[in-house]
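[job 0417] fold request received: DUF3307 domain-containing protein
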Amino acid sequence: MIFIQLILAHLLGDFILQPNSWVADKENRKLKSPYLYIHVLIHIILSLIFLWDLKLWWVAILVGISHFIIDASKLTFQNNQNKKRWFFIDQILHVAVIGGVSLYFNEFNFEFFKDQNFLKIVMGALFLTTPASIFIKILLSSWTPVTEEEGNMQTESLSSAGKYIGILERLLVFTFIVVNHWEGVGFMVAAKSVFRFSDLAQAKQRKLTEYVLIGTLLSFGIAVLTGILIK
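[job 0417] inference complete; emitting structure tokens
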């Protein structure tokens, strides 16, 4: 498939064959950096190599030109505040161009959207993200883990870290169940217990321990139940 061939070329060109020194030079000198043009040339050459068909030379040129336009736009508008956002925009646009080429060659038919099993798995995975977080938050709303005075003594944590940890653990549990590897669920429970043990031991607060335990069991329980229902 052209899509796979071009994605392989993209991964090699954008990550493996692009040193950090090139990235830093491009960010400092922007369109004046020679590494920008070398980088684009590498993408064209890699695309030709992976396609292995001289009749598709125009595809390699298209990939190279689009890569230059996308990278140049990123370098022009990117700053320290939006750097992370532009990284993902940059990658999404590159993949979109490759996807467009694949569509031109009729490599995608989107028949999987009619597959009921696929749609059920997507539905389950979506439920285990923000909707499940809201359910758990409401269920735990009648309890507070620590008082305000005790809370000031707690060490600071990353912003919204707990929410994303919960989403990731539920998705992993759901994946293990869908692929029939229940032992992975046990591994997840054990891993989280190990990481949480030291924090809870240092806190020495029974209320906090019970709150975390209830939240963890609810999170895993919802993920397991969703996996069983989807199966």
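[job 0417] notes: The two ends are 31 Å apart (CA to CA). The CA atoms of residues 73 and 214 lie 48 Å apart.
[job 0417] exit 0
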